[in-house]
């Protein structure tokens, strides 16, 4: 019997793929750091039964109608705003993502970014490496305290709760806003549910972990930054499109808020010509929330298991509902 075919949109370590190589015919885009060009992807998907894609691949109606065999699209991310779920449903394609396996790693990164931004770690590193450290001084690179401050978590899903656990370890007061109340977080972490307006007005650290949807598009806009404290630090590890970047640049430039730590941007990759890159009070990193070696390997395995499960009829472990 002919093997079913899987196409992977980046070059991945053969060792992770090897266990599946006897079962399926696997083709991969040849580069690890460059996305597959759209026209090649459209061609490859024609014959694929399963597609293993990245968050930077747009999985839309045009792509899905290119294939008559495609049964599953497996996204190497927990966020799936790059996939048109209605189109997938229309074409009978199951979409899967990678929840749970990346929760703690992404929360680690979120908290690391919060700490780096508050304590000016990146500036301090630059300062010493560019030989500016001539003398010790009382307020040299003085940042903001983290312990005992108020953190406001927007989007209290798995990653939001994992950030709240870390915040509790720092004796922080925890506010959250979410579509629904989270009784366990309220009981175990003493997190307090508040409106979005109250959260952005009261928190010292506002952390966005909210999925990107039409409702959350640019929720962090001029009006939102206006309501934040002048000492507020804004952290975004969700999706860049939840933020009006022009408004954020303005808020940072005019010191309406103190600083921002950003792992995600409206257009990725962002370039160093973007105004955010000119600001000392913006700490910017290239969408590496879940990027630990251990977690990325687990995510890749989960993606492969999801594809294999759909293709062999046992079902996906983590289908997007
Ligand atoms: C995801 O998985 O959606 C994250 O953005 C990866 O860092």
From TrEMBL:
<dbReference type="GO" id="GO:0030267">
    <property type="term" value="F:glyoxylate reductase (NADPH) activity"/>
</dbReference>
<dbReference type="GO" id="GO:0005829">
    <property type="term" value="C:cytosol"/>
</dbReference>
<protein>
    <submittedName>
        <fullName>D-glycerate dehydrogenase</fullName>
    </submittedName>
</protein>
<dbReference type="GO" id="GO:0016618">
    <property type="term" value="F:hydroxypyruvate reductase [NAD(P)H] activity"/>
</dbReference>
<dbReference type="Pfam" id="PF00389">
    <property type="entry name" value="2-Hacid_dh"/>
</dbReference>
<dbReference type="InterPro" id="IPR006139">
    <property type="entry name" value="D-isomer_2_OHA_DH_cat_dom"/>
</dbReference>
<comment type="similarity">
    <text>Belongs to the D-isomer specific 2-hydroxyacid dehydrogenase family.</text>
</comment>
<dbReference type="InterPro" id="IPR029752">
    <property type="entry name" value="D-isomer_DH_CS1"/>
</dbReference>
<dbReference type="Pfam" id="PF02826">
    <property type="entry name" value="2-Hacid_dh_C"/>
</dbReference>
<feature type="domain" description="D-isomer specific 2-hydroxyacid dehydrogenase catalytic">
    <location>
        <begin position="7"/>
        <end position="319"/>
    </location>
</feature>
<dbReference type="InterPro" id="IPR006140">
    <property type="entry name" value="D-isomer_DH_NAD-bd"/>
</dbReference>
<dbReference type="InterPro" id="IPR050223">
    <property type="entry name" value="D-isomer_2-hydroxyacid_DH"/>
</dbReference>
<dbReference type="InterPro" id="IPR036291">
    <property type="entry name" value="NAD(P)-bd_dom_sf"/>
</dbReference>
<feature type="domain" description="D-isomer specific 2-hydroxyacid dehydrogenase NAD-binding">
    <location>
        <begin position="111"/>
        <end position="289"/>
    </location>
</feature>
<keyword id="KW-0560">Oxidoreductase</keyword>
<dbReference type="GO" id="GO:0051287">
    <property type="term" value="F:NAD binding"/>
</dbReference>
